[in-house]
Design the sequence.
């Protein structure tokens, strides 16, 4: 079992640290956020992620998991340090590597001889050399190890991944990192750093492409009177296509797809290729936010000014509390710009408001926000919304209109209670 350090305890770092400790390694996790470290040391996990709290408690109890402030403190006797720090979008669409560089600089002198840096942050081609340049340590090798976990199922995805990708020009270093995952049953692909880094961006861009494709297809279905739910069912039975990531919605978002698709556009450009196709995927997504806002406006007769909209769902997907670049925020901004009053409910959003406009009142209950509303709009696919009785909602609202951007509700049941139901692509 290895001594490992994790730098950054966000969605990726905390999951990585807790899972590696669960697999039997000795893990020290570092963050610069002192409050977060204090909370984690007491076993308090501030993010919503199924199973993560239990793994943190398990690691603290058996002594295999520790939390410290600052990378310096974490790396002194590690065999490898995993970089799990943010890589936000820079002003021109390129990737801002300042967190990666700052963490590498902090660790440079304290890394034990011949230890490894494992880069789990999503970084563009060439970042392995950037870290090496900052470290100025010829004995410390850098291995790219992109992470593919999904928020909402991060622990499961980490422990049962589809694949593990390692990128290094040093076979021995890559094999050492592979050995940390010995107890995970998944294909391991060892390649060069540029290919490993490209695989991560290609995966996210491809998934975003599927979602934009199905949203565009939903628009076609609306135009010709087809039902996108049935179309997708029929499409997905083709094993070359599959059913996953073919659910229409309000547009895609979250902490990764928007920045990673923009980054790949930028990376392609720097490599001399104009990736217009991917530009189209991003444009279809922007269009989808407008299409949803138009749908809401049409549902109330074409003018949102003076209307009250009840929104169900703020997070970018169900199963998480993450609102970073959530499609809900993009749609809400458009509704507000058109003059609507917006009230919202989300099961995981109470005090933290992410990037939510301050004009939006957040309610404690899905029914409370419907009181006197003209239309209710489902933006996140939380199962509990499907269980709400339309009869009860009908008694509270000023108008009986519902825009269901996830095709989640029972259309016939809502229509049966007098609701004017608008789904996506049907
Ligand atoms: N969130 C996802 O679903 C996901 C999935 C795959 C890959 N990624 C990639 O993983 C990386 C991390 O993403 P995330 O969502 O976990 O980010 P996050 O914002 O949730 O967490 C990052 C953490 O790093 C800490 N940090 C920043 N600088 C530090 C430093 N010098 N030393 C110690 N800690 C430091 C921050 O305080 C924060 O707690 C990004 O590159 C992202 O693109 C994210």
Sequence:
């Amino acid at each position: 079992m290895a001594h490992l350090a994790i730098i950054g305890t966000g969605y990726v770092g905390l999951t990585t640290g807790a899972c590696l400790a669960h697999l039997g390694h000795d893990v020290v996790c570092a963050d610069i956020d002192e409050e977060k470290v204090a909370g984690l040391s007491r076993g308090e996990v501030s993010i919503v992620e199924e199973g993560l709290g239990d793994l943190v408690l398990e690691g603290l109890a058996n002594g295999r998991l520790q939390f410290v402030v600052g990378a310096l403190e974490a790396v002194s006797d590690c065999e490898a340090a995993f970089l799990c720090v943010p890589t936000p979008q820079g002003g021109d669409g390129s990737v801002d590597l300042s967190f990666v560089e700052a963490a590498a600089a902090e660790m440079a002198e304290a890394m034990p001889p011949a230890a490894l840096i494992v880069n789990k942050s999503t970084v563009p081609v060439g970042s392995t050399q950037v870290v090496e340049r900052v470290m100025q340590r010829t004995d410390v090798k850098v291995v790219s190890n992109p992470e593919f976990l999904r928020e909402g199922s991060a622990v499961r995805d980490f422990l049962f991944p589809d694949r593990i990708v390692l990128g290094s020009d040093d076979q021995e270093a890559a094999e050492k990192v592979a050995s940390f995952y010995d107890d995970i049953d998944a294909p391991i692909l060892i390649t060069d750093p540029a290919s490993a880094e490209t695989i991560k961006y290609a995966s996210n861009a491809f998934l975003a492409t599927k979602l934009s494709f199905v949203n565009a297809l939903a628009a076609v279905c609306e135009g010709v009177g087809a039902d996108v739910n049935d179309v997708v069912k029929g499409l997905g039975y083709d094993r070359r296509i599959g059913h996953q990531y073919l659910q229409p919605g309000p547009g895609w978002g979250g902490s990764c797809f928007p920045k990673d698709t923009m980054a790949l556009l930028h990376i392609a450009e720097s490599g001399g290729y104009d990736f217009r196709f991917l530009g189209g995927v991003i444009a279809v997504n922007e269009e989808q936010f407008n299409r949803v806002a138009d749908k809401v406006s049409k549902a109330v007769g074409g003018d949102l000014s003076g209307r009250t909209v009840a929104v169900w769902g703020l997070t970018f997907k169900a199963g998480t509390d993450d609102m970073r670049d959530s499609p809900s925020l993009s749609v809400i901004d458009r509704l507000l710009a058109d003059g609507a009053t917006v009230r919202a409910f989300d099961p995981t959003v109470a005090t933290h408001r992410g990037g939510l406009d301050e004009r939006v009142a957040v309610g404690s209950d899905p029914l409370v926000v419907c009181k006197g509303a003209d239309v209710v709009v489902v933006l996140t696919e939380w199962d509990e919304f499907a269980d709400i009785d339309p009869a009860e909602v009908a008694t509270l609202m000023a108008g009986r209109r519902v825009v269901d951007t996830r095709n989640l509700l029972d259309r016939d049941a809502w229509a049966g209670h007098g609701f004017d139901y608008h789904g996506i692509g049907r």
